[in-house]
Amino acid sequence: MPLAPPILQTTLAGRRPDRQGKVRDIYDFGGCLLIVATDRISAFDYVLGSGIPDKGKVLTQISAFWFDRTRPIVANHILSFNPTDYPDQARAATGLLRGRSMLVTRAEPLPIECVARGYLSGSGWKDYVASGEVCGHRLPAGLRESDRLPQPIFTPATKAESGHDLNISERDAAAMLGQGLFDRVRALTLRLYAEGLAHADACGIIVADTKFEFGLLPTGDASQPPEDRVILIDEMLTPDSSRFWPKDTYSPGGPQPSFDKQFVRDYLEQIRWNKQPPVPSLPDEVVAKTREKYVEAFTRLTGRELQ
To answer: In 3-state terms, what secondary structure has residue 85?
Structure first.
């Protein structure tokens, strides 16, 4: 059966998004935001013309699972995932929004990405090869690509408006945030990662690394320290924000199969795209295989069927 067309752009009663990321369309309703996850997919820092059907639903519904599961650890920005609770202008688009949107409270995002790594991969592996360190963490000699680390590490990164985020040291991150706020988000990052790692392991998935975003709730009390106003925002432990590897094929010493856009990257490398515009379109087979991996990750982790 052919796949439904991917949703690449959204509007609400003719209203365009107030902001757009690579994947998400954001509508500003004053005290709250409506975040809609489209089916757009990016690779090598470019949004491709071909989307992955239901990808936005996977990202939203897997985040909903984790936000609910980790609420005892830290509060988050979720107000509702149910379009019947949304502002009037959004409720008119319930069919579009159901399963791929969330109404969230407004918060001030912190200027860093909070990354936890339990395995040596990606930019962490490149840094280790070059210096024996990852974001200032000196690691044992002789580690292989994809090896499990002796213990998870916190590796913050700056947020880039375009291109790749840049890894920074804990000292630099603390200077940006202040020591109290830094200590709080570092501890939360490692605790949330431990929760995700343990649950995913029981589901046959390795979470090699993941990134979290935190924000600060506004307050009228100037004496309240920022570390007491921290909430979890954005997405959580999704195939876009994490490296998910199948546990049964894990074999350190090189790259691992994954539950994300691996088929997309492999295809773009195969056709020798120069990673500059114009962006190529994806063949149906690559789209279908990529969707299959996203949905498989969702089903394994949540034990649910995608809405």
So the answer is: helix
CATH (domain of 207): 3.30.470.20
- Threshold 0.85, pTM exceeds: yes
Other residues' Cβ atoms within 10 Å of the Cβ of residue 71: 12
**Dist CA 155 CA 209 (whole Å):** 10
* DSSP E strand boundaries for 94-183: 101-105, 108-109, 112-119, 133-134, 137-138, 148-154, 157-158, 166-167
pLDDT tens for 166-181 read: 889 999 999 999 999 9
Q: What is the DSSP string of 282-299?
A: PPHHHHHHHHHHHHHHHH
Cis peptide before 280 (omega within 30 of 0): no
Q: Which domain holds residue 145?
A: 108-249
How far apart CA 186 and CA 41 sit, in angstroms, is 29
Residues 12-21 have pLDDT tens digits of 988 999 999 9
pLDDT at position 237, please? 98
